[in-house]
């Protein structure tokens, strides 16, 4: 069995079993099944086993940070592993979306699935985002964020602080941020299809999505215009002049 650990004096080499391969890579390797015994390097190679490049404390700490962000327990204290194994674990963890925790005072529940526009960075008028909240499958209950960039695939936002920052900005007024998306992009804030008639463009939402999700910001804005502030006096009707 060809071994991928080419560091040290061995260079390209092979082993008889998978346990030997894992032992060659370094400490902290785990068995593939509970009944399998993983041998140490000393048990496999004897006292003259070639030295390996161990992961630095900084790499181990980074792995633990990534694991905690993704709802996993950190590695046991004093864990050691080969540098190549640590790099592979980091790459694997980066493919898993972090769990977004709501900071105090931010109602993420008000940010539903859809597309939003918020004031942009670096001098841009607006930045555009897509929020996904799966309700089924292994990602149920998670919040995922992507940045919408014209002419390119949506960019997944993985940095936890950036996700919190964007969702907090949307949560200030989700209905208006959704409506602004349609006004600037010309596509429905829910299904992201092109808005092809005047009414849909005014609402930033197509007829099917209006029927499914409601009219959104424009409807709420019209209600606010019709409503009278609490305590405001009711205007009196002008009296008709006697003829």
- Shape by Cα distribution: elongated
Low-pLDDT runs of 5+ residues are 27-36, 225-233
Extended strand count: 4
| Secondary structure category | alpha+beta
Explain briefly what this protein structure is:
This protein starts with 17 loop residues before the first helix and ends in a 17-residue tail after the last helix. The model is unreliable at 27-36 and 225-233 (pLDDT under 50).
Descriptive notes:
The chain has two domains: 77 residues, no CATH class; 118 residues, no CATH class. The chain has nine helices and four strands; from the N terminus they run ααααββββααααα. The protein is of the alpha+beta class. Strands 1-2-3-4 form a four-stranded antiparallel β-sheet.
SSE blueprint and pairings:
Blueprint: H1 18-25, H2 41-45, H3 57-69, H4 83-94, E1 114-119, E2 126-132, E3 144-148, E4 155-156, H5 160-171, H6 174-185, H7 198-203, H8 207-213, H9 217-226
Helix pairs in contact: 3-4
